[in-house]
Design brief:
The structure is a single chain. By secondary structure, the protein is of the alpha/beta class. The chain has a single domain, classed as 2,3-Dihydroxybiphenyl 1,2-Dioxygenase, domain 1, CATH 3.10.180.10. Helices cover about 25% and strands about 35% of the residues. The protein contains three helices and eight strands. Strands 1-4-3-2 form a four-stranded mixed beta sheet, with helices on one face. A four-stranded mixed beta sheet has the order 5-8-7-6. The two termini are about 30 Å apart.
């Protein structure tokens, strides 16, 4: 039985990596057990680890669910100076999605549920609200 997960990205400069991921995730790390390593609990049981080291090539993407993919794209372009990225959608897929890279080449992305009702139901599960 799987009950938790972690996903690790590596950055060549941990101080810059911490600043970048703090901004991306809009919060400080939940856990810094030692130099060169930090963890964020994104949702209960799902952890993103940022470790100092050589970034892996061609891994990912780690895709994060967001309420507004357009707003997040604008925020990252303005504040982190990342290159603009395309948002994709297909009629048979219930989400819009996009992919971009951090300054170390780690592939990250966002997705947004197209139907607001579906997104609201997902949010209720994550935050533990019934109705």
């Amino acid at each position: 039985m799987i009950f938790e997960m972690t996903y690790q990205v590596r950055v060549s400069d941990i101080d810059e990596g911490l600043k970048w991921y703090k901004f991306l995730l809009k919060k400080d790390p939940n856990f810094i057990p030692h130099d060169g390593f930090a963890e964020w609990e994104l949702i209960p049981g799902c952890w993103l680890q940022v470790a100092e080291g050589t970034p892996a090539q061609e891994s990912g993407p780690l895709r994060l669910g967001v309420k507004s993919i357009e707003a997040e794209r604008s925020r990252l372009i303005a504040e982190l100076q990342i290159e603009s990225f395309e948002i994709f959608a297909r009629e048979e897929v219930p989400v819009k999605w996009a992919t971009f890279s951090d300054p170390w080449g780690n592939t990250i992305g966002f997705f947004e549920y197209i139907e607001e009702q579906v997104m609201n139901e997902k949010l209720k599960v994550v935050i533990g609200k019934n109705g």
